Amino acid sequence: MTSHHREAVGQRFDPARMQHARRKSWAALQGIQARMRPGISEDEARAEAEQVFAELGMERLWHPVIIRIGPNTTKTYRERSIPDVRLGENDIYFIDLGLVFDGHEGDVGDTFTVGQASEQQACAQAARDLFRDVADIWRNESLNGPSLYNYAHERAEAMGWRFNHAIKGHRVSDFPHSVHKGGDLGDFEHKPAEGLWILEIQIAHPTEPFGAFYEDLLTQAAP
């Protein structure tokens, strides 16, 4: 693994279980996506997510379920949603999950659209494309965390989107990763090790009130 203290893990840490938690977390996200429909609120979507988690055998949350709709897709993790927003007929939303399976942390996020929302759909796809671009740079070059996020900012602007600098990625591991004080990926001055860091990407339209989010575990195998 690594000898850097910010990449420390617990005694029960198992890379295979990290991948298991990742797969189950993506399955949970897809299960919630299948329940999203015009008219649903963020609170209602979170309530329905509980059934998805139960069916998949989730042990616990390690961070609250985040579901953002419409103008709330520009908000960061710590910002409160505008209340009473419901998914429109032609709209955008994202899902951000931090779930524990078999004692290990999954953290996944993706953005989707409903109806005829071409600009929003382009934004959602741009977040995915930017994630993959940055992840490829991480695989092929010895860049540290700040350099990865500087590259992400430059690429986002070149693609025509605003980049959210408040989102910097973070550590995961066997639960709870917080005891290791890994901090933000965007502040990690070394090349991040495989299977320990979540790369988060959040962008927004330059003038319209919507954005997109994508996150996943950095691994040598591209998704």
Automatic annotation (TrEMBL):
- Which key words are in the record? Aminopeptidase, Hydrolase, Protease
Spell out the Gene3D superfamilies in the cross-references. Creatinase/methionine aminopeptidase superfamily
Q: Which CDD domains match?
A: APP_MetAP
Record domain Peptidase M24: where: 17-186
Q: Name one GO molecular function term.
A: aminopeptidase activity
Q: Which PANTHER family match?
A: AMINOPEPTIDASE (PTHR46112), CYTOPLASMIC PEPTIDASE PEPQ-RELATED (PTHR46112:SF8)
Official protein name in the record: Aminopeptidase P family protein
